[in-house]
Amino acid sequence: MGSAEELFEGKPTGLPAPMTRGTALYREESDPVPAVRHVAGYDQFVEFCVGRGVQAKELAADAGRLFRFLRTTGSEIVNDSALKAAAAVFAGNTLARLRPDAVWTAYEGGAPTVGNGEKQFDVDRLLDILPSADDTAVQGLVAMVTDWAQEEPDDPPAMHPRPAVQPAGLPPYVRPALPEATYYSEGGAPIPYGRRWGDGGPDSESYSVDSHPERFAGLHLVARALIGHLAAVYNVEVHEDPAHAAELLMEARDVLEAVKVTPRSSGAASLTFVLTGYPGVVVQAGVLHDFSFPVCGCDACDETVQTTADRLEMLVLSVAAGGYAERYPVGRRRWSEYALTAFDGSGSESGKSEPAPAADRLREAEIRLRGVPGGWNPWPLR
Questions:
Q1: Contact 238/227 with Cβ under 8 angstroms?
Q2: Is residue 159 classed exposed, middle or buried when 0-12, 13-18 and 19+ CB atoms within 10 A define those classes?
Q3: What is the pTM of this model?
Q4: Which burial class, exposed, middle or buried, applies to 117 when counting CB atoms under 10 A from its CB (0-12, 13-18, 19+)?
């Protein structure tokens, strides 16, 4: 049967800590989160294989053979929840084994996936569809996984922008007082935004409900306070014009104000603030990335004005300190990528996506970003 160490790489561990959908995650750089490639909990599936005269070690080394085995035995597996969970872990470990950059990822309220930046596989869903798949579908799945396994990783090294240490004596940013209010459900009960869901996660129907968006009205106060702070501390040009909203890559509806803050340094990233009637704020940082506040106001995501203001302030102050980098094009798919390091050293985040702008804007961005290969510069002080 073989030990766990013989079947997959390294010692088995638990799933990684789940990430919250719809929110930015800042992590302490001194406490990096290790990649998970080998998850424990598949012993029952190994015993199931032995009972059918199949060596689990051979399945672990051949994803195509594993898929065909799961197809023929899948009806029995999916009817046993414990066995299905074990089979899903085994299948995920097998996929992770195919590429050095493949890892397990977990999300709050969702099934874990296995993959890399190019492709992710939902192994629970895989077990559900294989029993009813025909030969053509299985062959297509095997071909897709084989092509993915054989692709050469083409991601460049990760970006690590380093914000400058701000000199002593600079005027500090102070968050304005935000309006406080209690919001109620249709039944009249107070809604504890930010802590309304327990360990079971949000109700499925809450994803389509966007109640009390007015709780985000204070974000307009925060955006204006940040603009005032930037103008007081840095050598910048502040230009208010609704036309700046058209510079966003995403569509901003019901625009109330648009303010562009441009540092007087060619190597520093500009910030464009668009205040919307939602109420919310969209900020364009640099040349190819927009950030929405809130990311999602639906009841399931459960954002509050305080936590959203935290993210807005972190973005703006970190960009001004030089803790922001952009890159385009990245890899064969010519993705755009950003990295943000918190101005106070509290953590970092990054993201990558297929850019949507017109070709001429992408060319301009590519040329501009060549001049700041290590990341955007800190803004010049007044």
A1: yes
A2: buried
A3: 0.64
A4: middle
CA-CA distances (angstroms) from residue 287 to 41, 48, 227, 241, 271?
45, 54, 19, 18, 9
Placement of tokens 């603009």 in the chain: 227
Q: How does DSSP assign 161-225, residue by residue?
A: --PPPPPTTPPPP-PPPPP----B-TTSPBP-TTS---TT---GGGGG----GGGGTHHHHHHHH
The residue whose two tokens read 């579908």 is: 137
Give me the residues paired with residue 146 across strands. Answer: none
For residue 129, give the amino acid letter: I
Q: How far is CA 218 from CA 223, 275, 280, 315, in A?
A: 9, 11, 9, 17
- pLDDT by residue, tens only, the chain of 382 residues: 445 556 898 889 998 877 644 333 333 343 445 789 999 999 999 999 999 999 999 999 999 999 999 999 999 999 999 999 999 999 999 999 999 889 999 876 678 899 987 789 999 999 999 999 999 999 999 999 999 998 876 667 889 999 999 888 889 999 999 988 888 887 888 878 777 777 667 777 777 777 889 999 999 999 999 999 999 999 999 999 999 999 999 989 999 999 999 999 989 999 999 999 999 999 999 999 999 999 888 878 888 999 999 999 999 999 999 999 999 998 777 889 999 999 998 999 999 888 877 899 999 999 999 999 999 999 999 9
Angle between helices 63-78 and 81-96 (to 10 degrees): 170
Within 8 A by CB and 6+ apart from 101, the residues are 116, 117, 153, 155
Take residue 268 and report the two structure tokens written for it: 């520093």
Closest CA to 37 of 15, 66, 60: 15
For residues 359 and 85, give the distance between their C-alpha atoms in angstroms, rounded to a whole number: 46
Q: Which residue has the tokens 């097998």?
A: 94
Q: How far is CA 185 from the centre of its chain?
A: 30
Among candidate residues 17, 8, 75, 20, the one with its CA nearest the CA of residue 300? 20
N residues, the chain? 382
Amino acid present at 290 = D
CA-based Rg of the chain, rounded to a whole angstrom? 24
